[in-house]
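Appendix B, Record 12. Input sequence as logged:
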Amino acid sequence: MGVASVQLVVGGVASAPKTINVEARPAAQAGVAWRFRTEANYISHRAAVGADGTVYVNDSSGFLYALTTDGALKWVYDASADGGGSQARP
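Logged structural output:
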């Protein structure tokens, strides 16, 4: 519902700020509580749900996402860069 600026910090090194457009989520449809879009081509596995309700899903590009119970992004981990040595991005 507007424009926001985001910046990634990995290993103490900050990226250049990037402007993103934040859109309102569409209303839930017939059993769909929320949707989450990734930049990958596909997601080949079902999501897993942690004891606290956190939803975990990985995409075809090697990113692991942690989502809140209402579908908001908690963090994303890039495991594709070097086989798992990357760091979580808040």
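The two ends are 21 Å apart (CA to CA).
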